[in-house]
Design brief:
The protein is of the alpha/beta class. The protein has two domains: about 45 residues; about 130 residues, 3-Layer(aba) Sandwich (Rossmann fold). Strands 2-1-3-4-5 form a five-stranded mixed beta sheet. Helix 5 links the parallel strand 3 and strand 4.
Length: about 180
C-alpha cells in the first residue's frame, strides 16, 4: 500500500508541473493576444470621406420621411413648433411625430421611455417610413438610448439646436452612423 501512495504522489507532482507550464503558456498567449488587439485598435482605419457622407445625407433622400421630435426636459414643453419652423425654412415636407415628457426621472421612467421608443420604431416600420429626422431636447443619455434603439435601421438624421440658433432654430448635424 505504501508503494501505491509513493507512485500516486509522483503522478500528482508531474500533473502539478504540467498544469503550471500550461497556465504559464496560457498567460503568455493571452498577453500576446492583448498586445495584438491593442495594436490593431491603434492602427484601425479612420472613417474616410466623413464630411462627404454627412453632406450627401443632408435633406430628404427618400420618398416617405418622418420628423421625430422628442421633448424630454422637465423645463420645456413641445418642440414641435420649432421643428415646424425648421422644416418650413428648409422646404422639407414631412409628418411630425412628437413625444413629450416631463424629464426622465428614475428607473421606471427610463423603462417606459425605452418601451415607447421601441413602439415608435415599430409604428414607423408599419407606416413604411423610409428615413427619420430626429430632433431631441433632453439629457444626453436620452440621445444615447435613442441611438441604441434606432441604430442599424433606417437612415436617421440628427439635428442640433445650437446655443445661438440660426434663423431656422435647428441645424442638420449628421446621420446616425
Amino acid at each position: 500500500m505504501a508503494h501505491f501512495w509513493t507512485w500516486f504522489g509522483r503522478v500528482d507532482n508531474v500533473l502539478g508541473l504540467i498544469i503550471v507550464f500550461l497556465s504559464g503558456y496560457t498567460a503568455l498567449t493571452l498577453r500576446r493576444q492583448k498586445k495584438r488587439i491593442q495594436q490593431l485598435a491603434k492602427n484601425a482605419p479612420k472613417i474616410e470621406n466623413f464630411q462627404t457622407r454627412v453632406k450627401l445625407l443632408n435633406g430628404v433622400q427618400s420618398i416617405n420621411p418622418i420628423a421625430f421630435a422628442l421633448s424630454l426636459s422637465p423645463d420645456s414643453n413641445s418642440i414641435k413648433p420649432y421643428v415646424q419652423v425648421y422644416l418650413r425654412s428648409k422646404e422639407l415636407k414631412m409628418y411630425i411625430v412628437e413625444v413629450t415628457r416631463n424629464g426622465l426621472n428614475g428607473a421606471e421612467d427610463l423603462e417606459s421611455f425605452v418601451n415607447e421608443l421601441t413602439q415608435k420604431r415599430r409604428e414607423f416600420e408599419a407606416a413604411a417610413y423610409t428615413e427619420v429626422h430626429l430632433f431631441i431636447n433632453g439629457p444626453v443619455m436620452a440621445g444615447v438610448l435613442v441611438g441604441a434603439a434606432f441604430d442599424n435601421w433606417l437612415p436617421v438624421k440628427l439635428y442640433h439646436k445650437p446655443r445661438t440658433p440660426p434663423p431656422e432654430i435647428y441645424e442638420y448635424w449628421m446621420p446616425l452612423v
